Amino acid sequence: MEQDITLQINNLKTQFFTSKGVIPAVDEVNITIPKGKIVGLVGESGCGKSMTAMSVMQLLRKPGKVMGGEILFHGQNLLECSKQELLRIRGNRISMIFQEPMTSLNPVYTVGRQVREAIMLHEDISKEQARKRVIDIFKQVGIPEPERRYGAYPHQLSGGLRQRVMIGMAMICEPELLIADEPTTALDVTIEAQILNLMKKLREEHGTSILLITHNMGVVAEVCDYVYVMYAGKVMEQAETFELFKNTRHPYTIGLLRSIPQIEDKKEHLYNIKGMVPNLLNLPDGCSFCNRCEYATKRCEKDRPGNYRINDLHNTRCFLYEKGGDFIGDK
Ligand code: SF4
Q1: Measured between alpha carbons, how far is 297 from 304 in angstroms, rounded to an integer?
Q2: Does 328 reside within a domain?
Q3: N or C: which end of the chain has fewer CB within 10 A?
């Protein structure tokens, strides 16, 4: 049976035009988000995860620009939508949660008013009806004393509560797609677990599709159905989550997984992938991971690896699997 696809990103190319040159922040990226699934987009800072999300939301600021590809939301290419159509979709059918809620909440209005206005922008309901909905969503996202918190200003709430307000605001119109950019990075582990549970509940109860951007492989293991690993603007490995953890192929993903702290690990220092993420203005001719890869050969320095199929659930961009997997093109 064919899966119902909420978002299909095809060959997305986003570049930044700077005085020093063109930065290929997102380079021919393909991502599929089926209905009711949580898809993880992982990698270190600066690998292109957030730029992929900002491209989908069309919130890129100059000098960034989408230079090619398609972003199909239920088959409709968002890159071809008018500003009015986008305004109708954004915040209503597609919502986004940012890492730091203080940057998205307006400090001079109460949080209740801000969430209420978010609904009234998209739905024809009275102020009182909207207020009731806000209090109800505050309850659902676990905000204690929601009536009292309705009248609080952002600075009067803890980081965890502000993040819940943002999640409430993103959920209130029951979006078909939620994009969450490092939503739990600034929170302690208890609040993180509660917020991840909320996302699972949203998926289960409303069939919401979620793109979860994170650098934390533990979070991926906890909630994601599928995983895309990004490095230097490209997807390096993609797989169903269980398959990715059981049958990890790409040397970069292996490094990310080795960096997860283990309870039984008695070593004083955590494993770190050696070296630095390459400067996108000056990428190597060959594989972008070659300066950090334990398995790199001379060929990796000069040729770019294509994408190879490991099995139906799994592709990787590494010459090591050229013979084992089928080449499925260079995108
Ligand atoms: Fe390492 Fe070469 Fe594979 Fe790149 S193509 S990840 S450098 S082995």
Answers
A1: 12
A2: yes
A3: N
Same domain flag for 137 and 38: yes
In 3D, which of 75, 111, 24 has the Cα closest to residue 288?
Answer: 24
| Residue 124 CB burial class (10 angstroms; 0-12, 13-18, ≥19) | exposed
Domain, as residue range, for 73: 5-231
Counting the structural domains of the chain, the total is 2
Ligand 1 in contact with 232 (CB < 6 A)? Answer: no
CATH of the domain at 58: 3.40.50.300
Using one digit for the tens of pLDDT, what is the confidence trace for 117-153? 999 988 899 999 999 999 999 998 889 999 999 999 9
Query: pLDDT tens-digit profile of 82-122?
Result: 999 998 899 889 999 987 767 788 999 999 999 999 999 88
* Residue at 165 is within a domain: yes
Q: Whose CA is nearest to atom 5 of ligand 1?
A: 318
Same domain, residue pair 116 and 261: no
Residue 45 CA to ligand 1 centre (angstroms) = 20
Co-location of 147 and 23 in the same domain: yes
Structural domain includes residue 238: no
Q: pLDDT tens-digit profile of 167-195? A: 899 988 889 999 999 988 777 788 788 88
Q: Which of 231, 258, 291 is the last residue of a domain?
A: 231
Query: Could you tell me the distance, in angstroms and rounded to a whole number, from the CA of residue 299 to the centre of ligand 1?
Result: 9
Which SS3 state, helix, strand or coil, does residue 161 take?
helix
* Cβ–ligand 1 contact at 325 (below 6 Å): no
Q: What is the pTM of this model?
A: 0.92
Site to substitute for ligand 1 among 230, 318, 330, most atoms within 8 A of C-beta: 318
